[in-house]
Amino acid sequence: MDRCNRNFVLESDDNVYIYIILEEVKALQTLTTAVGYHCLVFTIQDVCLNTDTGRLCIFIHNDPPSVTCSPNTASVLESTTLQTSIITLTTSDANGDTVICSLTRTNPTGSQFSLQKDPLTGGELKMYMIYTKANPNFRMATVDTYTVYITCTDDKNSTSVECKVRILPSQPPVFTNIPTLVTMSTSNVSPDTVIDVSVTDPDSSTFTYSITCVPSNCPFTIFNTGHIQLNKDLSDHTVGGYDVYVTVTDGYNTVSSTLSVTISGINVAPKFTNLPLANILVVPENTAPGSSIYQVSATDINKDKLTYSMTSSPGTGTSYFTIDSSS
């Protein structure tokens, strides 16, 4: 029978966290603040003063926070102008620690995104939202995908995630009431309406319009409301019609369509039908005064009464020839 009873002694600074009961090592308190390595040195001694020592190292582990992006890849139109929530960031911590997240950077570098905590979530789950900032000025032709880097920490460990944002092209405007034919008349005056151009665009409501005409210098003006009006009276207009090329842009896409405008009631100039002659007209020198030497012929599309006149080169010709102004 062993008469030398054993006695345990713990020689360690870590006994603030750990104690021995019935030769079993147990936690003295919650180990939240004790994350890391702790080494314990034990000495055993009996009444016969026999001793032995042992060393026990304990690593107290803290799980890093869990972080997920939903969706992992979000899509947003390049024409976006308002602050828009695009990705939900869900965090949790197995140890119950408070998790704080921050947006560390984006690739390509820019300031188009922000990270904000969702004030409506609580308990174990903590949610953040990734937003597009107002007027981010996305250009898909330049950058079609951004990577947003998020780091979340519980003050002991951190977790980093990458959330993707894909930029979608803005859809172009579509004309809904041209091409078409518009008829004006010489009785129309400025600022009579020619047409109010209408377009649809699912991505934008702000447009810039412009026009060009064939023939050029057309008597029309267009405003950024799509309203086309006369900028001069047509009472003395001599051009019977125009092809008006209407262009609209939403800031990302530019489209054009053709508006045909005819002008009725125009007095078209008369045209000679038998002048000039291919050869010189030969008149005998002894032709009697009053003799008809040539009958000028002309037409007028408006069927107006025509009046004839003539000049001569050299000027002495008018002393030999005359023309009937009515025939």
From TrEMBL:
GO biological process: homophilic cell adhesion via plasma membrane adhesion molecules
Record flagged with keyword Coiled coil: no
Listed GO CC annotations: plasma membrane
InterPro entries in UniProt: Cadherin-like_dom, Cadherin-like_sf
Record's keyword annotation contains Mitochondrion: no
Domain Cadherin, chain residue ranges per copy: 68-175, 176-272
Top-rank lineage group of the source organism: Eukaryota
UniProt GO molecular function: calcium ion binding
Keywords: Calcium, Membrane, Transmembrane, Transmembrane helix
Name listed for the protein in its UniProt record: Cadherin domain-containing protein
Organism whose genome encodes this protein: Potamilus streckersoni
